[in-house]
Amino acid sequence: MRMMVVTLIPPKQYQTKEEYVYDVLRSSILNCDLKPGEKLVMDRLSEELGTSPIPLRSALQRLQSEGLVEITPHSGAAVSSISISEITEIFALLETLERTAYRVAAQRATDDELQRIDELVTRMDGAAQIQNTRLWSELNTAFHLRIAEITGMKLLIEYTRRTLDQWIRLSRCYFAQIGSLRMEQAQAEHRQILAWLQQKNLESLEQMAIQHNRLALQAYQELIVSEQISD
After folding, report:
1. pLDDT in tens, 191-210
2. Are 170 and 87 in contact (CB under 8 A)?
3. Exposed site from 1, 46, 77, 153, fewest CB < 10 Å?
4. CA 153, CA 122: separation in Å to the nearest integer?
5. Taking the model in full, what pTM does it have?
6. Which residue, 28, 119, 110, is CA-closest to 69?
7. Is residue 57 exposed (0-12), middle (13-18) or buried (19+ Cβ within 10 Å)?
8. Sheet of 76-79: strands edge to edge?
9. Where are the domains of the chain?
10. Are the beta carbons of 95 and 214 closer than 8 angstroms?
11. What is the CATH number of domain 84-230?
12. Where does the chain have alpha helices with state H?
């Protein structure tokens, strides 16, 4: 019987057992070590994490509030599934958030901030060239979050971070199957976003926020449908 979780950080670095359990489970879900729909068996988790049920239940409730875990009476807990409707919602939210983020960031970004974004895109180019989808996904998250942070809008930053968490899980589970084509397309779009931020081209940035997210959505939808057909 396989281990259900991957312990990424030594527990001694945490002040409470709940924080440790929460972080390990959250990382395992986002990294897709715990698969969508997988049952979370309390006894096994308690044994593997070396904890009692109380901090485990608290951690699962926190993860439920973030949409990463589903808790059903009499059935227990399971990792939240990823449906086409949920994928659509993720990219609809990102599109809405980024239309505002790009517009505000273009007007507020300093030369140093734009240079740091340029450096991120260059690192993403390198990851794409060697087909390192995991590294590319991490840098992609940093790219979009960095633009949101430039706005200085606390709620926009928080909602972007939470939505990107959902995208991280999606990408860990499925991005490698989409292949190099989407990375190549996305990198061209990232370069264009950076250029338009530098030029403060607000109209083009808004259109790119729409295009960038809808092309990504289409790629994931086609993959999920093809997997359902093959099943």
Report:
1. 999 999 999 999 999 999 99
2. yes
3. 1
4. 26
5. 0.78
6. 28
7. middle
8. 39-40, 76-79, 69-72
9. 11-79, 84-230
10. yes
11. 1.20.120.530
12. 17-30, 42-49, 53-65, 84-108, 111-129, 133-151, 154-178, 180-199, 202-230
